[in-house]
Amino acid sequence: LSRQDSMAAVPAEFKWHFPNIASLTPASAHSAIRYLHGLPWLISIETEVLNDVKYLAIYSFCCVESTAQEWSVDAEYELLLHAHAPNAASINSKV
To answer: Which of 1, 20, 36, 77 is 20 to 30 A distant from 57 in Cα terms?
Structure first.
């Protein structure tokens, strides 16, 4: 089996808690690098405004040093975003 085939069904979990989106700065808008199956990953968030509507953008990055290694990364993830404000909606999305 190739490395990719042998790890295809092995789940890994990466949780990152940020207390207040409004207080994020460029330095605090990303997680520390966490190694999952030997590859370095991080989560980055930012707010974006499009047509006067504010959105929350969430990105996951594989932070490998080699471009050749980067293009061989294949990941499937589930995003759970829990809102703590009263009457706010939570999100559960699989990609």
So the answer is: 36
Q: What is the pTM of this model?
A: 0.60
In a domain, 3, yes or no: no
How many domains is the chain partitioned into structurally? 1
Q: Which domain holds residue 39?
A: 22-94
- Taking alpha carbons only, the member of 58, 11, 61, 54 closest to residue 34 is 61
Higher pLDDT residue, 65 or 54?
A: 54
| Residue of 80, 78, 60 whose CA lies nearest to 17 | 80
Gap between the Cα atoms of 58 and 76, Å rounded: 15
- When pLDDT is cut at 50, 70 and 90, the band that residue 1 belongs to is very low
